[in-house]
Write a structure and sequence with these properties.
By secondary structure, the chain is α/β, with parallel strands linked by helices. It has nine helices and seven strands; from the N terminus they run H-H-H-H-E-H-E-H-E-E-H-E-H-E-H-E. The protein has helices at about 1-10, 20-35, 45-55, 60-70, 90-95, 105-120, 155-160, 175-185, 205-210, and strands at about 75-80, 100-105, 125-130, 140-145, 165-175, 195-200, 210-220. It has a seven-stranded mixed beta sheet, with helices on one face. Helix 2 runs antiparallel to helix 6 (about 105-120).
């Protein structure tokens, strides 16, 4: 997949020299997947496409949010329910000048995450073994969230406590019709939000199956 994967990175404005690091991370995920139940994929190539490129598709948007949320300080980004490190680790590789906190409640997954941080030589990542409800409040400029569970009232209340004033929540989501249904259910908690389409290379062309969006919620509007 080499050249095509590098082309995909370039389309997101990511240095293609980072490709081997992403591939090394995908190999780690693939190696430990069965033991730690990290991702829904059965090969390195699947992981690169379905998970790493999917995570990186938001990079151009996250660059814009980081510029708005904090200047000129170092952005603080939290990945809530990080699991196998998605999207946090691919984003940490992409943004070496931002500080990432991977929040994960399962100890065995935290063990994997800490091993990945060492294996990949990431100096800008810390792993926090706790539930999202117990994570530091108002401590982050951007809070990312990729778990494919609905933004229900309980989860939304928890997420809203994490960004600092002027920060953002950026939730990776799929179909727009489901997003509209989710957001209507939490309208009292989130009066203002927007969804931006994400283009994930090689994922496929079927709109309903492969549609991806980033839901952006500004802290200023809470």
């Amino acid at each position: 997949m080499g050249v095509s994967f590098a082309d995909a990175l370039a389309s997101f404005g990511i240095d293609i020299a980072k490709a081997p690091l992403f591939e090394k991370y995908a190999a780690e995920l693939n190696l430990f997947n069965s033991a730690y139940d990290l991702v829904g994929a059965d090969s390195v190539e699947d992981i690169l496409t379905k998970h790493i490129l999917d995570s990186l598709a938001a990079v151009p948007l996250l660059k814009q949010l980081a510029t708005k949320a904090v200047k000129p300080a170092k952005p603080r980004i939290a990945d809530v329910g990080s699991g196998g490190g998605l999207p946090g680790i691919p984003l940490a590789i992409t943004f070496p000048n931002a500080h990432f906190t991977l929040i994960e409640r399962m100890s065995k997954r935290c063990t994997f995450l800490e091993n990945c941080v060492l294996t990949l030589g990431l100096k800008n990542v810390e792993v926090l073994n706790t539930e999202a409800e117990k994570a530091p409040q108002k401590a982050f400029d951007i809070v990312v969230f990729r778990a494919f569970r609905p933004l229900d009232e309980k989860m939304t209340k928890t997420l809203l406590k994490l960004p600092a004033d002027g920060g953002y929540i950026a939730a990776y989501k799929a179909r727009m019709d489901k997003i509209n249904a989710e957001m209507s259910g939490i309208a009292k908690l989130v009066p203002s939000w927007c969804a931006k389409p994400l283009d994930v290379p090689f994922l496929g062309t079927g709109k309903e199956e492969h549609e991806r969006n980033l839901v952006i919620i500004p802290k200023a509007d809470f």
